Amino acid sequence: MVLEMLLKVFIFPGFLFMSAYSFLVEYLDRKIYARMQNRVGPPWYQPMADFFKLMGKSEIIPEDANPLMFRLLPLIALASVATAFTYIPIYGLKATSSFSGDIVIVLYFLTMVPLTSFLAGWYSRNAYATIGATRVLTQMFAYEVPLFMSILAPALIADTWSITEMAAYYAAHPMHALINIPALVVGIISIQCKLERAPFDTPEAETEIVSGVLVEYGGKLLAMFKLAVHCELVLVISFYSAIFLPFFTGIAWVDFILYFVKTLLTLFILVLMRATMARLEINSTVRFCWKYLSPVAFAQLIINIIAGGVL
Amino acid sequence: MDLIKKAIDWGTSKSPWILHFNAGACNGCDIEVVDSLTPRFDLERVGVLKHGTPRQADILVCTGAVTLQTRDRLIQIYDQMAEPKFVIAVGTCACTGGIFDGCYCVTGGIDTVIPVDVYLPGCAVRPEAIISAVEKLLSSLKDDKGGAK
């Protein structure tokens, strides 16, 4: 029992599966992006080659940086993403672990990644990293509200705070998912903003502030941070497709294939947004999120409160 | 342990991230370096990414003869890069000093200041030559049984 749980948490569908899938997702992300720019793009093993190379490089910690925090932060980011991943149903309707209220836990762990990257920038004691860090926090205040409201709106209809129970509810009543279409649109824009990808990539804008919070990171620590960021991408698209694309058959292997179809579809839309739009200024991002995304998400909440009473 | 070392060596030969530094060039070679990153040549298909910070770069692509103004900065940037690190001198001026050799404000080629792995002459070098230089550097890593230099 304990062994089975450990296997589930660390091998499949836990940490190892998530890391392997994050390499695939990173490759597809870069490849589709390159094809949209009329380029050939990297070969399929490129993310792995990058990871192994970074693991072999020597470690440099800046003189002014806090060595303990500098080393610890990438691990905290990776650990919180891996923990949150155990609450997402990958095959079948049941996640590795679930309790009533795990949506809140997943949202909490998702907030940990921007927080660690803020602290990483802050403790690097570098001008570019500090600017990047303040932008990470500013952006967090922009997307958190619409993201939380759009994720919690479907939960109101299902009348539960557990992802597993929610998946079961929507599998039983697939037509009820159609009510959530405004939240689906708001959700995908806010997760693009959460993942700090174009057009919301102000925190790591290469052309202005080099690479933002990660400017002093290199070698093993950068490899950890990159892995955490791409695992966060996997976590977010899995979370999103579990909530907004609730198509389940109940047969484990069919659901497993469906999981790939749903997550890769979500990824394709995210890459499409990244490839076709230019970077916004940080104040435009905040204004866009508060002026347009939040009211739509709030309207969805009200609709769902009424719908939840009627249905 | 052997397998880990092999994986790291394989990664090093497949994933060169470059940092571009102009040590005092006339901008001709710099245009060509940027040109080789454009969709027409697309260096990403051999794994090359351009990074802005020396901490994340493996290959320092240097253009131009080293002037007295840039000498200390070049050494500082080279020191900020993590091992293993490589240097490509792009253009005749970067290799030997070129037409600026003997000038009162010029120390000479890149190798008068930091060690250089690949010399790439030309005025200005063609993007194909830069791609070939990167490939040569990577294939020389693969032949080396001891792994990265």
Q: What is the topology?
A:
The complex is a heterodimer of chains A (311) and B (149).
Chain A: H1 2-10, H2 15-36, H3 46-56, H4 67-85, H5 102-124, H6 127-158, H7 163-172, H8 181-194, H9 206-209, H10 219-244, H11 252-276, H12 282-310
Helix pairs in contact in A: 2-10, 2-11, 3-10, 4-5, 4-10, 5-6, 6-8, 6-12, 8-10, 8-12, 10-11
Chain B: H1 2-14, E1 17-22, H2 28-35, E2 49-50, E3 59-63, E4 66-67, H3 68-80, E5 86-90, H4 92-96, E6 106-108, E7 118-120, H5 127-143
Parallel strand pairs in B: 1-2, 1-3, 3-5, 5-7
Antiparallel strand pairs in B: 4-6
Helix pairs in contact in B: 1-5
Q: How would you explain this protein's 3D organization?
A:
The complex is a heterodimer of chains A (311) and B (149). Chain A is 72% helix and 0% strand. Chain A is built from twelve helices and no strands. Chain B has 149 residues and is an alpha/beta fold. Chain B has helices at 2-14, 28-35, 68-80, 92-96, 127-143; strands at 17-22, 49-50, 59-63, 66-67, 86-90, 106-108, 118-120. In chain B, helix 2 (28-35) links the parallel strand 1 (17-22) and strand 2 (49-50). In chain B, helix 1 packs antiparallel against helix 5 (127-143). The longest helix of chain B has 17 residues, at 127-143. The model of chain B is unreliable at 145-149 (pLDDT under 50). Chain A binds chain B through residues 30, 34, 37-43, 45-46, 48-60, 206, 210-211, 214-219, 222, and chain B through 7-12, 14-15, 39, 42, 44-45, 47, 51-53, 55-56, 58, 80, 82-84, 148.
